[in-house]
Amino acid sequence: MYYRRSNIAARIFDRQICTPAPGTSVHHARRFYENLVPSYTVYEVEFPDHSFRKFTDDGQYLVSFSRNHQELIVYRPRWLSFSCNDEDCDKHDLPAKARRFDSFFTQLYCIPLVSCNELICKDFFLYMESNKFGLFATSTAQIHDAPAVGGAVQGVPSIEKITFHLLRMEDGEILDKKIFSNDFVNLTHNMGVFLYDDLLAIVSLRYQTIHILQIRDSGNFVHVRAIGEFCREDDELFLNSNAQGMQLSNKNKQHQVPENHVENHMHQGQPNVGNSFLSGIKQRLLSFIFQGLWNEETDDTLRIQRLRNKFYFHFQDYVDLIIWKVQFLDRHHLLIKFGSVDGGVSRNADHHPAFVAVYNMDTTEIVSFYQNSADELYLLFEKFGDHFHVTSRNLMYMNFISSHSNNIHALEQLRSIKDKASNSSQFVKKMLASLPFSCQSQSPSPYFDQSLFRFDDKVTPHACFLVYFHCNDQMGLAMEKPIGHPLETDHINVVCLLLLELISATDRHRQSTDHPIKFILRNSPHTLKFKIKPGPEAGSMDGRAKKISSFLFHPFLPFALSIQQTLFLQPSVVNIHFRR
Question: Which GO terms describe its biological process (predicted)?
Fold first, then answer.
């Protein structure tokens, strides 16, 4: 049996004399990452007082924001270089300049994005790799008790001004802007916006409209369609012409009644199109549900009984559904999540009933409709999970983000959790709560490839807690409560879900630990290859202080940042992990 050597020189030699099986050349090449790892750490780097967002998917830029959330600062990653006169430089410590942030990054520009009373949404950023465009957002403060006027949904907050900025990343020039006034778009972790190639979907929660825009190569936003009140481009024209016809018909009738009745009838005859009809997307949804139930039975008596129990009994519940979230499946289909108003504005919507639907934008039809606890939908999610992850077609390494549908180890982990679950229905609901996926929410770093490495991804049960983020600090000021503790929600702006993972490919803040996170080879000999330790090298002086961490991995280089934040606006600790 051929013994696979892990020495990098031997692997290069094997690559020269051996030909991998058809279709496996990229997988073989990626195994070089088992030898090229970020095994050296520079602790407590001297860094600018910024909030670091992420590396772009092509690795060309590091995006950050000023502490006051008014300026965008973009860096270019570069490798540390220094000279050494000795023969074995690896035994020497790095020079003092290695502890400086500018030894690893070059600042390209710093530009102001906000105007008046706006602030940069530090959790929002999308990157268009094909044109090297960046999409950023600024907004004013939320108004939680805003009145529902002009067709707005009651109970949804309002933001006076939301501005989307399209930038050319190379030089920071603002190419175009898109402004939403007195609206609400969920910008946390890109939840309310989805980018697919050159198509952009923006979900207005307040007015229940999906705005489809196209980003041209010239750097302009072009309106394609709006899905919500109307589905086809001529729907509004048809309804307005019909309303005019109704007005003319009513006027003709009014001339035939006594004079003293005309004034009253004229007020009653004014058509109110906005209140007379359900929205176009809601009518499509109700029609699909009705037709599905109708076709399930052939006997008329059973059919009427089924419709009475399954459709008319829940009719108002279906009418009250609102759009929560949207993602592209391809250029023609959207995956839309529906739920109650409370769940749409809640920071933790897992406890609210929800539904997902596939919508064809060309035919304006609902293709399928599932409740988020449906076993059929879970089977599709388990077998074809990659179809829900829409990635750039220009970057090959974006196709190697591990999921349970493309990686046997991730599938075994999922099934192990499923087998241990005490309630199968709750497990299915929990897994499907992530649909639709947030755009560009996962790192393509090869060190999260579960066919190459396994890592400490779970916290022990006694260490679990809830973390609440305040809006004023760099990474989010964390205020922690043990599970079961009564929650004090005053001045709390963002509520994070229960954090169980120490590290993963998903872009989220996580519980920090003084113990290093180990990355171990998945394949033989299963050795420890490197560790990632956030915070000071000697650990925290105050063991009682709760800390959160974020990890920014370069998409293809052995290079990463770990950022540890504690309570009460204490300075962050930034470590740089790289291959020396």
Answer: carbohydrate metabolic process; positive regulation of proteasomal ubiquitin-dependent protein catabolic process; protein ubiquitination
The secondary structure of 485-496 as a DSSP string is SPP--TT--EEP
CA dist., res. 248 & res. 242, Å (int)? 10
- Looking at the fold, whether 358 and 428 belong to one and the same domain comes out as no
Identify the H or E element spanning 416: helix 408-420
Task: Output the CA–CA distances (angstroms, integers) from residue 171 to 403, 527, 534, in the order listed.
Answer: 35, 44, 32
Closest CA to 391 of 127, 131, 196: 196
Provide the 10 A C-beta neighbour count for residue 250. Answer: 15
Kind of pairing, strands 322-328 and 221-227?
Answer: unpaired
Quick check: is 283 in a domain? Answer: yes
SS3 percent helix, strand, coil of the chain, rounded to 5, is: 25, 30, 45
Same domain, yes or no, for 330 and 407? no
Same domain? For 48 and 103 the reply is: no
C-alpha 151, offset from chain centre: 27
Q: What is the CA radius of gyration of the chain?
A: 27
Closest to 33 in 3D by CA, of 501, 523, 458, 440: 523
Rounded mean pLDDT, 535-545 = 73
| Beta carbons within 8 Å of 154's beta carbon, 6+ residues apart | 148, 341
CA angle at 516 for the pair 510 and 520, rounded to the nearest 5°: 100
How does DSSP classify residue 246? H
pLDDT at 482: 37
Q: Which of 372, 390, 422 is the last residue of a domain?
A: 372
> pLDDT tens for residues 230-278?
988 877 777 777 666 666 666 665 555 444 433 333 333 333 344 557 8
Cα atoms found within 13 Å of the Cα of residue 477, Cβ hemisphere only: 12
Q: Tell me the β-bridge partners of 116.
A: none
Quick one: which H or E segment has residue 295? Answer: helix 280-296
From the list 553, 366, 523, 561, the residue with the least C-alpha distance to 447 is: 553
User: Do 343 and 430 belong to one domain?
Assistant: no
Lowest mean pLDDT among 187-191, 409-413, 538-542, 575-579: 538-542
User: 10 Å Cβ neighbour count for 119?
Assistant: 17
Strand partners, 122: none
Domain annotation covers residue 9:
no
Chain segment 448-472, per-residue pLDDT in tens = 999 999 987 554 433 333 333 333 3
pLDDT of 499 above 60: no
Which range of residues forms the domain containing residue 343?
276-372
Tell me which DSSP letter residue 199 carries. Answer: E
Around Cβ 155, how many Cβ atoms within 10 Å? 16
Q: Are 360 and 477 in a shared domain?
A: no
Query: Cα separation of 534 and 71, whole Å?
Result: 26
> Within 10 Å of residue 406's Cβ, how many Cβ atoms?
16
Residue recorded with tokens 């998945």:
522
Whether the CB-CB separation of 494 and 347 falls below 8 Å is answered with yes
**How crowded is residue 327: how many other Cβ atoms within 10 Å of its Cβ?**
25
Say how far apart CA 201 and CA 195 lie, in whole Å.
Answer: 7
